[in-house]
Design goal:
This protein is mainly alpha-helical and 160 residues long. It has five helices and no strands. The chain has a domain of 88 residues. The chain starts with a helix and ends with a helix.
Length: 160
């Protein structure tokens, strides 16, 4: 009986740290996020709004990906049945397939950016330019919550 008691305690100690890690990660203080000198600090209400928008976008993008993938599966299934199609029909099917692939890839990229923004919000690096380290600006982030670059760095990137 003494051998079974330590075996029961071992799984309990392994499970406890796994539950504590996410709770510590999710806490973000509004005053911890940097802002530009001409802006007021983030309020809890503003951060809650940004978080809600990001979470809503994630849910919506996952739905778009699911729809695009199911449409793509249907198009791929129909592509094998091309007997008797002329060149225009084959071209139209190829165009539709490529369009669905493009939509799915775009939604996946947007999902990745949105999840990255949510991670940055949780770890306290949200609002800091990933290029120069300066604050991005609250107005820019409220308009484009996925932004990772300040305006000067974004303009430099677009010129390239």
């Amino acid at each position: 009986m003494t051998k079974t008691a330590p075996a029961k305690k071992a799984p309990a100690t392994r499970a406890a740290p796994a539950k504590k890690a996410p709770a510590a990660k999710a806490t973000t203080r509004p005053s911890a996020l940097r802002v530009r000198e001409d802006e007021s600090p983030w309020t809890a209400k503003e951060l809650a709004g940004v978080r809600a928008e990001l979470e809503h976008d994630i849910e919506q993008l996952r739905g778009e990906i699911s729809v695009a993938e199911s449409d793509l599966v249907g198009l791929m299934r129909d592509s094998g049945d091309g007997a008797g199609d002329d060149q225009a029909d084959a071209g139209a099917k190829t165009y539709e397939r490529e369009q669905e692939i493009s939509l799915a890839n775009n939604a996946r990229e947007m999902l990745e950016q949105t999840e990255h923004a949510l991670e940055r919000l949780e770890d306290g690096s949200y609002g800091i330019c990933e290029s120069c380290g300066n604050p991005i600006g609250k107005l820019r982030l409220q308009a484009a919550p996925r932004a990772t670059l300040c305006m000067p760095c974004k303009m430099k990137q677009e010129r390239r």
